[in-house]
Amino acid sequence: MQGACQRQSVPDRLMSIMEICRRSSRDQKVSRHTLVEMSGPRPDKFFEITAPALAKQETAIRGQFNNVECHSGLLVHATDTEEAHDLKVQWRMSPGMTVAIILEGSLDVLLDEKSIQLGNGETPTGQIWNLTRTTLVRRKSHKGMRMRKVIISIPPEWIQMLLRDHKLPNLPGFIRTHLAISTWAPSNYALSLANQILNPPDAPKPIQNMTVESKAIEIIREALSVIIESTENDDACTDINTRTQGTGIQIRALRIRRYLQENLDRKPSLQTMAREFGLSIGSMQTAFKTSYKTTIAEYCRELRLQRARVIIEQEGVSISEAAYRSGYANPASFSTAFKRRFGLAPSTAKE
C-alpha cells in the first residue's frame, strides 16, 4: 500500500486519502439516541425524529458529525452522512443568522410554515437566512441520499456588532427581517474552506477547533458580502420579504465582478472588458471602485492569491507552479505578495 501511494502524484494521493475517509465516514452508524445527543445542548429547544419510529439504538443515519463551539461564539455543524431512512426531524431554532454551504445533497425544510430547499442536489450552494423570533424547523431527507454540509450559527453579539456599523448597506434590513434568505454560488475558495471543515487536520482538539473557526469566519465574510453587494437586479440574492434597491453603478460593478470571477484564467485586458461592457475604461474603473473600494487590478490579484493558497494547501503544487497559475512571472514576487496578503510564506502554507 505504501509503495502504491508513493507512485501516485500528490493530488492523486490526496484524492485517494479523501475518498478512503469518505467511505469510512459513511460506514459509521449513528443511532437515533446518538443523533439526538450529537445535535448539541438545547436547553431552550428540542430535537426530535418524527418519522420513522426508531428504537433508541436503531441506526438513523450513517456518517460523521463535527460540532464545534468556537471561542468567538460561532457554532459550526459539519456533516458527511448518508440517510438510512426517509427521515423527518424537527427542532426549535432561536433568533439569529445562519450561514450554510451545501456541498452535496438537498433538504426540504419548513421554517414555521415557510418552505425552503437547502441545496439543489446537483451543484454546491451557499445560503444564509435570518430569524428574528424562535422558529419551528422541520426537515425531511430521503433514504440513500448523501449529505455533505457545513452550517454556521452566528451569535447575537456578532449581529449587534454588525448593526452598529452603518457603512454596511442592505445588511441591517436583512438582519431585521424575519425569514430573510439569500442564496449564492460559493467561490472555489469558500468550497475549499467547507471541505477543510469537514476534514479537519489531525491535531490536538484546541488547535483543530481554531482551524475550523478561522475557516468558518472566512465563509461568513463571503456570505455577508453577497448581501451587502446585492442589488435589485441581482438574482443571487432573494430576500423573502424585501428587495434592496441598487443604483446603475452598483449593477454595472456587480456584472464586472462576476465577469472577473468567471474569466480570471483568460486575463482579459481593460480594453477588452470595456468593449464587452460598452463602457469607457474610466467609467468601468470608477463604477467598480465606487462599489467595492478596490481597483479591478487589485481585485484580480486578490482572487488569484486566494486561489493560489487553495491549490498550495489542497493540491500540494510547487511554489513555482502556484506562481505561474496565479499570473506571476517571478516566484519571488509571488512569495512576497502571498506573505503580504496572508501573513505567512507560501512554503509555510504548503506544509
Which helices and strands occur, and which strands form pairs?
Elements: H1 2-7, H2 10-27, E1 29-31, H3 32-38, E2 47-51, E3 59-69, E4 75-83, E5 87-93, E6 96-104, E7 107-111, E8 114-118, E9 125-131, E10 135-141, E11 146-154, H4 156-164, H5 171-175, E12 180-184, H6 188-198, H7 205-228, H8 248-262, H9 270-277, H10 281-292, H11 296-315, H12 319-325, H13 331-342, H14 346-350
Antiparallel strand pairs: 1-3, 2-5, 3-4, 4-11, 5-10, 6-9, 6-11, 7-8, 7-10, 9-12
Helix pairs in contact: 6-7, 8-10, 11-12
What key phrases describe this protein's structure?
351 residues; 12 strands; alpha+beta; Jelly Rolls; 2 domains
Description:
This protein is of the alpha+beta class. It folds into 2 domains: 204 residues, Jelly Rolls; 103 residues, Orthogonal Bundle (Arc Repressor Mutant, subunit A), CATH 1.10.10. The strands form 2 sheets. A 7-stranded antiparallel sheet has the order 1-3-4-11-6-9-12. A 5-stranded antiparallel sheet has the order 2-5-10-7-8, with no helix packed on it. Helix 8 crosses helix 10. The radius of gyration is 22 Å and the shape is globular. 25% of the residues are buried.
